Amino acid sequence: MTTTPSTIHRLIPLTGAVAAAVLLTACGSMMSPPSQSMYSQDSLPDAIKVPAGNKVAMETVGVGEITYECRDKTNMPGQTEWVFVGPKAALNDRSGKPVGTYYGPPATWESNDGSKLTATQLAVAPSGTGNLPYQLVKANPAMGTGALTGVTFIQRVALKGGVAPAAACTMANKGERQIVKYQADYIFWKAA
């Protein structure tokens, strides 16, 4: 193709129009809210799926620790085991911004806005070796007004770690406490 002055003059407006369209598209995508992937429970065990009629209200990532204590086994004199004492975790939104805490006992989820709730366990299911199990809990009515008001269910998914220590629990170290790191997503649901 031979480039002549008249060809260049015809291409300049076209090039400008294309550049403007690209610039507007880039600006428009910066101004619109970030697209969020829809949370899906399709790959989860049926036992921990939230019933129909509920929708995801908030997704958080809990990062923290679980305390275990070496205690006597119930109704088994002379035998010991690691017993779950309680969790302590920071709850962050998907962008990493702190939005609350999770602690216990009793297991309590507390939003930075002051609303908080406890819950009753409905089901657990294995989530992989070395990880706490998946969990579904039914939320008790929230205390205070805020993000946790109206929450119906909470799912614990995407687990990493948190199981009882590998260290021996014997009569010699009965009463000893150990802390184990863990991470889990806590998905909060409300009535649709």
What can you tell me about this protein's structure?
By secondary structure, the chain is mainly beta. Helices cover 14% and strands 44% of the residues. An eight-stranded antiparallel beta barrel has the order 1-2-3-4-5-6-7-8. A hairpin with a 4-residue loop joins strand 4 and strand 5. The longest helix has 27 residues, at 5-31. It starts with a helix and ends with a strand. InterPro entries: DUF3455. Pfam families: DUF3455.
Main sheet summary:
8 strands, antiparallel, barrel
The oligomeric status of these chains comes to: single chain
Percent of residues in helices: 10-25%
Q: Trace the largest sheet across and list its strands.
A: 1-2-3-4-5-6-7-8
Please report which band the strand proportion falls in: under 5%, 5-15%, 15-25%, 25-35%, 35-45% or over 45%.
35-45%
Structural class: mainly beta
Q: Can you tell me the overall shape?
A: globular
- What is the averaged pLDDT score? 86
One letter per element, helices H and strands E, the order comes to HEEEEEEEE
Summarize the structure.
InterPro entries: DUF3455. This is DUF3455 domain-containing protein. This protein is mainly beta and 192 residues long.
Itemize the secondary structure elements and their pairings.
Elements: H1 5-31, E1 54-72, E2 80-92, E3 98-103, E4 108-111, E5 116-125, E6 134-139, E7 151-161, E8 177-191
Antiparallel strand pairs: 1-2, 1-8, 2-3, 3-4, 4-5, 5-6, 6-7, 7-8
InterPro entries: DUF3455
Protein name: DUF3455 domain-containing protein
Organism: Acidovorax benzenivorans
What are the salient characteristics of this protein?
globular, 192 residues, mainly beta, 14% helix, 1 helix, eight-stranded antiparallel β-barrel
